[in-house]
Protein 1
Amino acid sequence: MSTESIRSMLGRDAAGGEGVVRGWLRSVRHAKGVSFLDVSDGSCMDGMQVVANPETEGYESVVRALSTGCSIEARGEVVESPGKGQHFEFHASEVLLVGGAAEDYPLQKKRHSFEFLRTIAHLRPRTNTIGAVLRLRNAASMAIHEFFQREEFFYLHTPIVTASDAEGAGEMFRVTTLPVGDPPRDEGGSVDDARDFFGRPTYLTVSGQLEAEIGALALSRVYTFGPTFRAENSNTARHLAEFWMVEPEAAFYDLSDLADLAERFLKSVFEDVLDRCEDDMAFFEKRIESQAIERMKNVIDAPFERISYREAVSILERSGEKFEFPVGFGLDLQSEHERWLTEKHVGCPVVVTDWPATIKAFYMHRNDDGETVAAMDVLVGGVGEIIGGSQREHRLDVLESAIRGQGLEPDDYWWYLDLRRFGSVPHAGFGLGFERIVQFMTGMANIRDVIPFPRVPGQAEF
Ligand code: 4AD
Ligand code: MG
C-alpha cells in the first residue's frame, strides 16, 4: 500500500509517476465532463488538485456525487499542472469514496470565524489555519527538544499528579477518587483524605519545576516539556486552564546565565520553525498577522534588552502613557505594561529582572537588597510575558523563612528543603508557555486557537 503523502507527492522531482492520493475534500467543482477535487491530507498547506473525467473509473457513480468533507482515495498519475500557483496536479484513473456522503458538512470553502470553529473542534483541524497551527506546534516541539539536546540538557519526565503546589498560588485542580456526593469522613466530620487514592490530597501539577530541580541537582541540566494545569478563572486571550510548558533547570546557573539561555533558546526555536514551516508561516503572514515573520526575524537578530524591574517601573511611570492599571514598585506588570515596554519602548524582546519578593513565588533567590528576588520575565511584542523564571533559593534557612512568609508549611516541602541540606548549589530555571510562543509565531489573537483542545472555564467538550 502506498503511503506517500501529498506533501511528498507535490515535492517530487518530476511529473509522470503513478500514485495514490488519500484525504478529505476541501472543495469540489463539477464542470461539464470534468470534476476538480481539492484533496487535503493535512501533510502540508497545499492540497492536491485531483482531476477526474468520464474516463475515470467511478466517475458517474462516485465522483459526480462527491461533496466537501468526503474522504476519498484516488489512483492515477502526477502531471504538470497548467493552472497557476501549483506545480503538479493529479489525473485520476479511479476514485473511491472511503467514508460515506458527508452530508451537511459544517466546514465550507469560506472563512469561518474562530469562535464558530471552536464549537466544532473535532473538525477544525481540517481548516487551513488550524492545520497550519498543528503542523507548526509539531515543528516547534521538535526544535525545542533539539535545542536542549544540543545544549546537553536531559529530558526529564516530571509527574502530572502531585501533592505540592509548585507556585504556592493555590490554583490547583484536585485529583480524587473519593465519591463527590458522599465522601468518607473522619470523626470530626471533615472529608477523610487519608482514604483517597493516594492516601492524601493530590492535584494536577501547575509546573514541573520542583521535580526538575531534583533532576538538575543530579544530572546538572534537565528540562521538562509537558502539560500543566491552572484553575485560575481568567477568561483572557492568553490564559488556558491546561497548557504545555517547557521548563529547563540548570545547576550552577545564576540569573544572568539563565537570561542567556532563554535568549539562545528563543532564537534557535524561531530559526528552526522559519526553516521548517515556510508555507505555513507564509500563510500566517498573509492571512493572520502581516508582521509574523518579521517579528520572528527581529527576535533572531536583535540582542535582548535587559532591564531591572525597578528601571521598568520608572520608565513606565515617566512614559506619559495612560495605562488602565496602576504602575508602581510592588505592583505586578500587566499585559498592557509588558507590551508597551517591548513594543513601544525598546522594539525587541526585553528581559525584566529582579522583581519585588512580595509578588513572586517562594522559591526565588533573595537578593542582597532584602527587597527583590533574582527573577526574570521575558517579554515579547504582541503577547507580553512569554517566559518566567528565576535563580532558585539554595540557602536552607532563607528558603524556609520564605515558605513560612508566604503562609505555606515547610513540612509540605520537606524533600524540596532536603535538596538544600544535601549538596545544595546555586541553580536556575525558567518556564516557557508553549501556547504563548505559538501565539507569537503565528500571530493568532486567541490562545484557544493555538492548542488542539482548549481547556478554559466552562469548556471541556472535546
Ligand atoms: O510564570 P509562570 O507561572 O512560572 C512558573 O510556573 C515557573 N515554575 C516556571 C519555572 O521557572 N520553571 O509560568 C511560566 C510561563 C509564563 O511565562 C507563560 O508563558 C505561561 O507559562 N503561562 C501560561 N500560559 C497559558 N495559560 C496560562 N494560564 C499560563 N500561565 C502561565
Ligand atoms: Mg509568570
Note: The longest strand covers residues 18-31.
Protein 2
Amino acid sequence: MQKEHPILKSKSEIEAMKEAGRISAKALRMAGEIVQPGISTAEIDSYIENVIRMLGGTPSFKGLYGFPGSACLSLNDMIVHGIPNKRTICQNGDIISIDTGATVDGWVGDNAATFAVGTIKPQIQALLDATKASLYEGIAQAQVGNHIGDIGHAIQTYCEERGLGVVRDYIGHGVGRKMHEDPAVPNFGKPGRGLRLEEGLVIAIEPMINLGTHNCHVILDGWGVVTDDGLPSAHFENTIAVTADGPVIITKE
Ligand code: MG
C-alpha cells in the first residue's frame, strides 16, 4: 500500500474553506428543492451551476477529469457519477443522488445527498435514512487520535446491521485546493487501523449504500456506476475538518 500524504490545513485555511462549503451546501439544498417528477437531470445541473456562480463560486465538478456537468446526478440503481442529460427524466418513486461542489478562492467544498422524487416506497426511504445516519456515525469518529478505519468501521457496522450493501469500489477522500487529496476514506474498515487522524485534516466522508449487493460496475458512457443487481443505492456526503474541538462540518450553510 502506498503511503499517503494528507495536506493538513491551518485554522485560517479551514475558515476559508467554510465559504466554499457554505455555497456547496446551499446549492445542494436548493437543487433538492427543485427535484420533482418531470424534471431532467440536465435542468437540475444547469440550475446548480447558476446557483453556484450566483453565490460567487465556480462549480468544482465541471471539467474535473473531463466530467461535463456541474453535478453528478445519479438515479435509482446508479450509485455515483451520473452525467446530466436531457433524456434522463425524474419519475415519481425515483431517488436521485446529487453530488456537487463549489470552489471559492481556490478551496473546494464537496457534498452530496439523495432525494426522493415524489412518493417513494418505505423500504427505499429506509435506505435513504440509514445512509444519512451512517454518514453522521462516520463523522462522529473523525476525532484527533482516531484512525481512518474507525470512520469506515462505524459506517459499515451501522449499514450491515441493517442488511445493506456497503460499496467498496468508491470511497471518500481528502479535500483542499483539489477535490481529491489524500487520504482515502473508505466506508468500511477495522477500528484503530489506517492513518491516524490529526488536527487540520479535511476529508469528504461519503457512504454509498445499496439496498442489495455492494457489487457494482461502470456503464457504457464510462462514468455512471450502477449496482450489479439493479437495486437502488443512496449517497450522502459532507466535507468535514478534524479539529481539537472535534469534527466540524465544512459543507454547511
Ligand atoms: Mg467526494
Note: The chain has a mean pLDDT of 97.
